[in-house]
Each structure stands twice: as structure tokens, then as C-alpha cells.
Amino acid sequence: MKFGIIGSGMIASLHAKAICSMHGSSLHSVFNHRAEGARKLAAEYGVPAYADIDQFLADPELEIVTVCTPSGAHFEPAMAALRAGKHVICEKPLEVTSVRIDQLIATAADCGKTLASVLNRRFNPAMVAFKKAADQGRFGRLTSASCQVKWFRDQAYYDSAAWRGTRSLDGGGALMNQAIHTIDALLHLAGPAAFVQADTACLAHTDMETEDIGVAIVVFENGARGVVEGATCAWSRDGHPARVQLCGTDGSVFLADESFEVWDFKDERPEDAEIRASLMKIGTPGLGANNPSSIGCAQHQRNFEEIVSSIHEDREPATSAREARKAVALIEAIYQSAAAGGRRINLIS
């Protein structure tokens, strides 16, 4: 399929690399409202650059658009692309409110187009093994399900762009921007949350509307309890990995980024020895923990390939807008609880 990219900078470059690594797809064009930004990325790949979104979307050969604008600026370009008859993939979070995600879902359905998100951490081999174990019921009764992202961003990071750390364009702070992939992983593995109580703060940065640390107690629909923690004020020389930890009556698994710290089940299976041999690493620095540019494109490539396959097979992709909505809704509830002094918020509709 022929892809177009909306946006510029590090994430747009990551998308371009992932697209060009795919078999049977190609980068077709680039749009940025700043003409120089569009030209810079387009020139690297020898494709047309546009500074007018209507001209960009009017191209009949363009089939699928990826949106790499700031988090709170996904809605307008995604809506325009859907209405122009293009499939759309939005970076995380798909949108910063569940209300706007619902509006995009409705438009995609009306236009008969696929709307999907980048949930790239679902595609690493360790996460695939983790999800398989959860789906097979290997934990017995799930009792504990937690995640933590203890990363660091210096003041210069937030000062580098006016949208960073703002409610309108970042959607939130450490939870909505940095921790959302790990929160998605937690819900992907443990199932939906039922209740949440939370507190947030900005402890190590200035001139920010949003949090650099947030902590929440979560009760899941299956009865498990857990803690969600996201921070950009946790300094480390090499960076801490993002962690997801599940425990139950029959097993425990602790995942740190793309490798396991614990893989332990009461009933052993033949694949367990291979998983421990190939996917367990202790003390590995965190992926993107201190340096966002260190994140590779392999999982984005797999994510895009899954979406393209779903379009060809006329089915909902694994990273559909409905899937992407789950983490956003939980983070919204965390913010609601924190704003209300830690009041318990019900997520069951």
C-alpha cells in the first residue's frame, strides 16, 4: 500500500523507516504545514512534499496516512484523512480524550475506512509470549497486575517545544505521553479496569500544566489489584526499563521492556525453558527511558504490517481505535481521580 505521513521530526522519521522496511508497501508522500519540515523528510526518501493538506489528501494514489503530529493535534488531520477516503494510523495516544476517539471511530465507520493506532510494544516477542500465557489462563486466578514507567526527561526536553507538558496538545504528562504504551500493555494482558484511585504531581519541572509523576491503585474487572506508576522525574544513568508484572495463584511473570525478569509457572510447559533461555535479561537499560531517539522501528513495522493485513482481509486490526481507546480512558479516569483528591472513579459502563 502507498503511505503518506502527516508530521515531521523524530517520530515521522521513525514511521518512514518502518514503512520503507515493509514488503509490498512504500512511502508515497509527506505533509507538514511547515513546508521546510515536509521537504526535509520527503527529500530523504525521494517522495513529494506538501504544505497544503487538501492537495496532499487529494492524491488518488495515496491509500493510508500515518499521523505524527503532537498528541492533542491528531483529531483534525485524522478526520480530514478519513473523510478524504484514506485509511488512518495515529501515533499514541490515538487522541487525548475518549470523546474525540469516539468521534473518529464513528467517522471511520461512516467512511468505510480503517482507523488504527500505533501500539508497537504489543509486537515484541516477549509481549507475544506474555499475552499467550495470559490467554491460556496460566496464571490461575489473577491477583496482582501492575506497571511502572520510571523515566527521566530534563527541563530542556519540555522547553524544546511549546506543546510539551500542556493539557491541550500533550493531553497530559508522564502518564499520557510516556507511560501510555505500558498502560496499554497492562490492559492488554490483565483485561479491563473497574475502579481507580490516583494522585499526580509535578515535582521536578517548571512551567508545566501536567504531571511528571502519577500513581494509581487499580481494581480490575476480574478482581485483581495493581498499581500504575508513570514518571519523567526518575533520574538514572542508563534509564530504567518499563515494567509490566502479573501474578496469580498459578504463576508470575515480570516483563522489563522486551525481556523477562521472572517467568515462573506452577505447571511447567515445554516452551518455558526456551522462553527463559532466549527472552530473559537482567539489568538491561530501558528502551527510550532517557533518550527517546534510541527507540527502533522494528515494532512499528510489525504494527503497520498487521494493519495492512487487516485492510486486505477486511477485518478489525489488533491495534484498532477501540483497543487504543482503553488506555486513554483509564488515564482520563486517573486524572479525574487525582483532580478530585483521590476519589474512587468507576470505569464500568
From the 3D structure, determine the CATH topology of the largest domain: Dihydrodipicolinate Reductase, domain 2
Order of adjacent strands in the largest pleated sheet: 13-12-11-7-10-9-8-14
Class from secondary-structure proportions:
alpha/beta
Strand content: 15-25%
- Count of individual beta strands: 14
CATH architecture of the largest domain: 2-Layer Sandwich
Number of helices: 12
C-alpha termini separation: 38 Å
Give the fraction of residues assigned to helices: 25-40%
Element pattern in H and E: EHEHEHEHEHEHEHHHEEEEEEHHHE
Task: Describe this protein's structure.
The chain has about 350 residues and is of the alpha/beta class. The chain folds into two domains: about 1-120 and about 300-320, Rossmann fold, CATH 3.40.50; about 125-290 and about 325-340, Dihydrodipicolinate Reductase, domain 2. It is about 35% helix and about 20% strand. The chain has twelve helices and 14 strands. It has an eight-stranded mixed beta sheet with strand order 13-12-11-7-10-9-8-14. A six-stranded parallel beta sheet has the order 3-2-1-4-5-6, sandwiched between helices. A hairpin with a 2-residue loop joins strand 11 (about 245-250) and strand 12 (about 250-255). Helix 1 (about 10-20) crosses helix 11 and helix 4 (about 75-85) packs parallel to helix 5. It is globular, with a radius of gyration of 20 Å. The protein starts with a strand and ends with a strand. The relative contact order is 0.16. The mean pLDDT is about 95.
